[in-house]
Structure to design on (329 residues):
């Protein structure tokens, strides 16, 4: 739900590929592609250097994707050309014998998780991004979603900024090959490109974190000062994602079924709310006095609620805890 920062690991990413070989192949395919799509601006849309595609910014990727998507629907992309592109930018090994880079890329992302700042599923924060061992062999316990689906445009299949570390529910069962921000599947317009870019997680202007609030619907201000226990009345409350500051993020909330999935775990939110209500500032100060200077009110707050711990250690439901605590701190 936060921006993904890939800048620090760009140089190491290029080391995964046979750049010279890829460049030679891309030069030939690029000429064929530009000739086929009959677009005067194609020279500037499709980079000359294959490195520029592998490290392309979200804005560049959206431009490439939109042009290819539209030209394909106009019937200008022949099957042989698309197959050549799939072979060159091959993510997963396939039946045609194309060797994919998926294992190397997944290992690379996991190795640099701290630098990227992603330890939970980017889309939902309900599952951890980690590895586990099977017979001394490490296995990746996460997916890498292609934000711009490679099935629609093979050229973006290996681009670093197009990868979103995610859980299998978000990637395989919900988002799949959908294009967030696309209004009409027949053609990607300039307006669509702007919407897609706004929803692009590795784009610097992505602002889900600040523009969407996770709240408990049904809680009134008077409940904060009452002894009403939310945990004892779960049916009265519902977790909602309020996107009033930017309605475009409602598409992400809906597509990934975030409200339904979070409400399955709403007892976590209700318990936190009750704790926050039970231990106001005044009480934490009194508890601090009992420690005779051994613990400050802020340290007691952290011991009780673990908000800072969740943020610093990238725990699941981090944003949920942060947003609920805003009502009290």
């Amino acid at each position: 739900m936060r921006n993904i920062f890939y800048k620090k690991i760009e140089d190491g990413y290029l080391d995964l590929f046979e750049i010279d070989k890829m460049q030679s192949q891309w030069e030939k395919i690029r000429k064929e592609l530009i000739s086929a799509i009959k677009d005067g601006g194609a020279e500037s849309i499709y980079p000359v250097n294959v490195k520029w595609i592998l490290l392309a910014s979200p804005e560049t990727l959206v431009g490439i994707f939109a042009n290819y998507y539209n030209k394909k629907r106009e019937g200008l992309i022949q099957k042989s050309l698309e197959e050549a592109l799939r072979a060159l930018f091959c993510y997963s090994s396939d039946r045609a014998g194309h060797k994919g880079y998926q294992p190397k890329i997944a290992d690379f992302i996991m190795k640099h998780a701290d630098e990227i700042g992603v330890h939970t599923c980017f889309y939902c924060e309900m599952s951890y991004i980690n590895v586990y061992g099977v017979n001394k062999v490490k296995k990746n316990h996460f997916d890498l979603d292609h934000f711009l689906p490679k099935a629609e445009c093979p050229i973006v299949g290996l681009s670093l900024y197009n990868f979103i570390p995610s859980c299998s529910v978000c990637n395989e069962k919900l988002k799949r090959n959908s294009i967030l921000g696309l209004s009409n599947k027949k053609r990607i317009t300039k307006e669509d490109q702007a919407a897609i870019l706004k929803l692009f997680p590795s784009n610097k202007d992505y602002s889900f974190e600040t523009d969407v609030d996770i709240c408990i619907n049904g809680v009134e201000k008077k409940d904060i000062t009452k002894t009403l226990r939310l945990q004892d009345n779960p049916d009265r409350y519902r977790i909602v994602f309020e996107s009033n500051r930017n309605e475009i993020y409602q598409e992400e909330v809906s597509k990934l079924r975030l409200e339904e999935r979070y409400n399955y775990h709403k007892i976590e939110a209700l318990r936190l709310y009750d704790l926050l209500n039970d231990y106001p500032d005044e009480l934490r100060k009194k508890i601090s006095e009992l420690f005779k200077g051994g613990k400050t009110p802020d340290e007691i707050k952290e011991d009780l609620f673990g908000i800072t711990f969740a943020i610093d250690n990238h725990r699941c439901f981090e944003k949920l805890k942060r947003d609920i605590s805003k009502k009290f701190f």
